[in-house]
Amino acid sequence: MSLQILTYITVGLSFALYIGIAIWSRAQDTGEFYIAGKSVSPLANGMPTAADWMSASSFISMAGLIAFMGYDGSVYLMGFTGGYVLLALLLAPYLRKFGEFTVPAFIAERYYSKIARIVAVICLLFISFTYVAGQMRGVGIVFSRFLEVDVTTGLLIGMGVVFIYAVLGGMKGITYTQVAQYCVLIFAYTVPAVFIAIQLTGNYIPQFAFGGEIIGSEVKLLDKLDDIVTSLGFNKYTSGSKSRIDVFCITMALMVGTAGLPHVIVRFFTVPRVRDARLSAGYALLFIAILYTAAPVVGSMARFNLINTFQADEVGSIDGNLKYEERPDWVKTWEKTGLVGFEDKNGDGRVQYYDDTNESFMPIAEKYGWQGNEIIFDNDIMVLANPEIANLPDWVIALVAAGGIAAALSTAAGLLLVISAAVSYDLIKCIFAPNISDKQELIISRVAAAFAISVAGYLGFDPPGFINQVVAFAFGLAASSLFPAIFLGIFFKRVNREGAIAGMLSGLIFTYFYIEYFKGLFFKWAGAPWGINNAEQWFLGISPEGIGVIGMCVNFTVAIIVSYFTSPTPNHVQKMVEQLRVPRHF
Amino acid sequence: MDKNKHSAYWRANLKLMAFCLSIWFLSSFGFGILFVDQLNMIRIGGIKLGFWFAQQGSIYIFVLLIFFYAWQINRIERKYDVHED
């Protein structure tokens, strides 16, 4: 059976499963639509939270970025997991005790203000739209590869699928569907990792293959990798090129952002008790960690195999480089999507893959007769191409496609749900038109979801970076806007309405314009980015991915100062805060 | 009486949180970023230690840390009689 047909069958089967579950548990009333009626146990909540969390960015993009970034890729590994510690300790139990539907609802009550609610909705929309845009790009890449069409067509097909899928069911549908999606995606991630780990190191557990020796030699995988990448002019794999302050800030922005992401926070509204919220975060991270501890190993092995494909023999000898005519099939298929490109710069009919931006390597390259790097990969294809590069059986490749789609769909659906709830419930029902019926509310929420998909699709056509980088912007926005407001709301009674509103706005605006200035996000049509994106131009040497940390500091400072200059928090709100700090009702 | 109990519980909670968060900070920002070069001089199981903390070790610690906190805070809640049910 051909790979194409096998992929159709695998993806088709997984879809039948999700849609079947979604129809079987279709949301009946609005309460169920939003939070599944508070009846999900911590362990059962862990899996969907993990599926929700692990998006196209974790599944498709991350290991690829790590493969090319080496140590610098650690920012994603630590950043996307460490936030769960903050969630479990600082936010989840208290928000659960508070017991509202949505994040803006908490902000509205705690800061006794409709304006605060609107500001929170604005923050939420900025965060979620940016995040969905990253997902759509991922969906586009998966579909383009497996239907063998170009990325734009893939994106359009993906938008249609997400639309049908997410608008059909509500949270309850999503909760059970996501258990299935978690299983599919973790299986799809682990199987090729195990295969490749066995091939390269003989170790059955990919997590442990990290420190393993390459079969048939006494050399450790990571040492060998360090050797070959440096022999081609690249940075050492185990040490990075980003500045320390930037690595620090990106990691921090991603961690704090995790704890401020609305679609993650709402997950903890669905558990029965306060202590379940903490356990739930623990289980979620456990399920996430299975993928995240395999990802760096997948990344290093992918880089190793990739280089061996093009640089099969001694560096510098003519026969060391692969003949373009003899390139493997995966290169040919990916060329069709436009995400792999080859240009024979020195006309020798062979592929040279090395770092041609490294000045100290230039004389060496010249001696070899190389005139520039000849092959370009989009980092985001690495995980999808990995099983093909390693010559794994076709069913594994088909499985990875299904996993990638599961990852992107589950997150996109979770995000769309948060967006539609924010618009239909927080904006329309709670502020502008309190008298609308449940049915009208559902219609509005679906229209909002459809609108969100269109905007995300538009952003996905010309994304400002790789999936993970776009996602990192969403985290920065979350870290600088919602996280401080929620955190201060629980831990500092003195912070009042004026402080919170001023804080959220200043944090959001600062971070948003910094990203827009250097990378361009929603204002591409107006000529953004306006600045030159390099370390000399950056504020304190912090890249747009890490700037959320400074935005967060701005938010904290403004919120506290403004609060001290305005009237104190009213008594009933102070009582409410005392109430939510203690698990038992009193 | 209740009020005292609540603020005593809250102080105990903050203390536990501070302890857990310092481990959180040390294992990621400390070992994985700030002291990565120093730790890379040590090798464990074929991997440079700083690099390992940055790419795998910190994640294992995060998982353990959440379960540790959940376990300890449940004990504290019982001690101050503020637990649910």
Structural notes for this entry:
The complex is a heterodimer of chains A (586) and B (85). Chain A is mainly alpha-helical. Chain A has helices at residues 3-24, 30-35, 42-53, 56-69, 74-98, 103-110, 114-146, 151-168, 171-201, 206-209, 221-231, 244-260, 262-265, 274-310, 329-337, 362-368, 382-389, 394-432, 438-461, 467-480, 482-491, 497-518, 548-565, 571-581; strands spanning 340-342, 375-377. Chain A has one domain (3-305, 386-581): Sodium/glucose cotransporter. Helices cover 69% and strands 1% of the residues of chain A. Chain A has a two-stranded antiparallel sheet. In chain A, helix 4 crosses helix 18 (394-432), helix 17 (382-389) packs antiparallel against helix 18 and helix 21 packs across helix 23 (548-565). Chain B has one domain (2-79). The radius of gyration of chain B is 17 Å and the shape is elongated. In chain B, 40% of the residues are buried. The model of chain B has no long low-confidence stretch (mean pLDDT 88). Chain B has three helices and two strands; from the N terminus they run H-H-E-E-H. Chain B is mainly α and 85 residues long. Chain B has helices spanning 2-34, 36-39, 49-79, and strands at 43-44, 47-48. The longest helix of chain B has 33 residues, at 2-34.
